[in-house]
Design a protein that fits this description.
Helix 2 packs across helix 3 (about 30-35). The longest helix has 12 residues, at about 1-15. About 65% of the residues lie in helices and about 0% in strands. With about 70 residues, it is mainly α. The two termini are about 15 Å apart.
Length: about 70
């Protein structure tokens, strides 16, 4: 549950739309939307892309750390 909340928080903080993030990750908008809604989870390759895009750690995204 933490992943979906942190993804949305990071996206909104940067003023991005789901479409912008999906394009950067080279996935469909519906796929990315599923991450934010919590009914899908990114594979490892996509998780790494998300970390690079938002300049954060996987530990933060997965709720293992608060920074």
């Amino acid at each position: 549950m933490i992943l979906k909340e942190r993804l949305k928080e990071l996206r909104v903080e940067r003023g991005l739309k789901q479409k912008d993030v999906a394009e950067a990750l080279e996935i469909s908008v519906s796929c990315y939307g599923g991450y934010e809604q919590g009914y899908r989870e990114p594979d490892l390759k996509t998780l790494i892309k998300i970390c690079k895009l938002f300049e954060t750690s996987s530990d933060f995204l997965l709720g293992l750390s608060d920074y």
